[in-house]
Every structure is written in structure tokens, then in C-alpha cells.
Amino acid sequence: MKMHQVSDHCFAVINEKNRVCDANSGLINCGGGVVIDTQSDLAHARQMIEMFGKVWPAMPQRVINTHEDADHVWGNQLFKGAEIIAHRSVPERMKQVAEPKESQKLLHGVGRFLTRLVLKTLHPGLEAAGEQLLEDYNFDGIELVLPTTLFDTRYELNLEGKEVHLIYVGPCHQVGDTIIHLLEERVVFAGDVLFRQCTPMGWTGSYEKWFQCLDLLIELDPEVIVPGHGPLCGIEGAMEMKAYLQYVRDESRKCFDAGITSLEAAKKIEFGPYGEWRAPARLYMNVERAYREFRNEPPDAPWDSAATFDAIYQVAKAKGIEAEF
């Protein structure tokens, strides 16, 4: 993890490995202090707090959760007494997708020899993802702490005269997707609307909605975008990710029309210039999302997590690369 100053009052903590759970966080160091997203486990959250403590001496009075995923909310419990702000959908969605027990069970399982062997036989992708997570994360002790201030479409903060606009843009990557725009400082905290130099993952929403969100990031014309995952960028980051999604959707259409399954399509479609991104085999999720749209399935159709990680694992093996999540 490394902290960067991105404007006069905005800071970002970047998780440089840029794999699953390596989420970024932000700080606005005025008006009582505002933290944006709280990391994937308590150790990373404490490290983030220590880093931000160098530029803001007190615990921040507010926290913003950009959406409901665990890697953006599992440090909430360390901000006792803080106002936690999120879109209205986020508390219920957190109960559905960010309950820590299953993730705790996975990491405990891959840490035991016999359990790991059984899991590797039944779900090799899930086991590989668990081993990767175990390198950096420990989910023990996490308690789900829900947002306390909820909004519908927009919410504004005035921090000592600085306007902070929370704009609801979901469902895109997740249901509760929110971006945070500081017009005066020309900074956007994008949450997982934007992945940078790593393959995006979308759990709900549609391609068209994601294109609209990326177009909005470009229209806002910030000098700096803090993505949910990956290094800092400008609007070129949104342009590159939109080009990737357009490429995958177009190639998926060809495969769908040819009667190829989404898994076989993901094995067949070339990574192209995006093969240098982290976790390129997550391509499977974007192909499957396209297939769901082609089949006219609802954008909030649930995913089988174990089967999804297994499919990503199979794509990596078919491509002759290391399985990375």
C-alpha cells in the first residue's frame, strides 16, 4: 500500500498488487475528514488509517462507501461514531454480498491441508483464489457495519466551502455504485466503476449502463481519477476500460451467434493489448455478462461464486498462463 496526494485536500491509498480485494481508498482532509472506502480486512484498514493520519491528525468524522462489496466496506467497524454514507441500496446489499462468514471459512479451509485437497478437487478455481487471498489477507474479526446516512440519486457535502458531490451511477459494477466528485479540486473517486490496468469484474448491471458511467467520468473531465482498483489516472483510464468492454462485447456477440458457450468463448477470445493487465482470465466474467444480455436475462441475475472462479481458472489454464484473480 502506498499513499499519494492527488490534489490540495485529496489523498489516495493504492493497493499496488492490483488483484482481487486489492481495493483503493481515499481521504478528503478538511471539514472533519472524509474517508472513501475502508479496505478488505482489519489489518489493511489500520494501515490505511495510519497513512492518512500523517495528513489528518484525528479519526475522520465521515466515511463514504462507494458500493456494497466486501473489499470496500470491511474496515467500517474501525470508524466508531463516524457517519457512514452510501446509496440507499447498500445496507441490504451488504447483508447479501459482504457477510464475512463464507470468506472466513474459505481462508480457514485453504489453510488446512486436507480441506485444501478436497476443495482443490471440487473447485480448483475457488481453492486457487483462496490461496491467493491468504497471501495478503486475514478476514478474522470482521463485523459488518452498515451505512447510517442513505441517499437516492445525489448527495452533497460542504467541507469548509468545498463542495463534494456524491452521484449514484448504479447498477453498473454493483447495485450501489457511487462516484465522488470534487469539482474545485478536479478529482473523482470512482469506486469500482473504474478498474485500471486490471481486468474489470461486474456482478450486476449492464454493458450500456457501464458505458454511460464511463462516459460520465470523461464528461466530468477530472485531472485525477482514483479508481476502485489500480493506479491513479486521468480520463484516459475510463477511455481504455470502455474500449476493453466494447471489444469483449463485440467478440462475445460473434461467439454467441456461433453457438459457442461463454466459457469456450472466453478461452477463444484473444486478450489482445489487455493481456498485460492483471488477472486477464477474468475475461470470463465479462463474456458471461454479455451472454446474459444476449439471452435477455435480468441484469441482477445471481452468480455462483465457486463456479465463476472455477471458470476463470479454466480460462487461465487454456491460455497457458498462471491463474490470477
UniProtKB/TrEMBL annotation:
<dbReference type="InterPro" id="IPR050855">
    <property type="entry name" value="NDM-1-like"/>
</dbReference>
<dbReference type="Pfam" id="PF00753">
    <property type="entry name" value="Lactamase_B"/>
</dbReference>
<dbReference type="InterPro" id="IPR001279">
    <property type="entry name" value="Metallo-B-lactamas"/>
</dbReference>
<feature type="domain" description="Metallo-beta-lactamase">
    <location>
        <begin position="22"/>
        <end position="229"/>
    </location>
</feature>
<comment type="similarity">
    <text>Belongs to the metallo-beta-lactamase superfamily. Class-B beta-lactamase family.</text>
</comment>
<dbReference type="GO" id="GO:0017001">
    <property type="term" value="P:antibiotic catabolic process"/>
</dbReference>
<keyword id="KW-0378">Hydrolase</keyword>
<dbReference type="GO" id="GO:0004416">
    <property type="term" value="F:hydroxyacylglutathione hydrolase activity"/>
</dbReference>
<protein>
    <submittedName>
        <fullName>Hydroxyacylglutathione hydrolase</fullName>
        <ecNumber>3.1.2.6</ecNumber>
    </submittedName>
</protein>
<dbReference type="InterPro" id="IPR036866">
    <property type="entry name" value="RibonucZ/Hydroxyglut_hydro"/>
</dbReference>
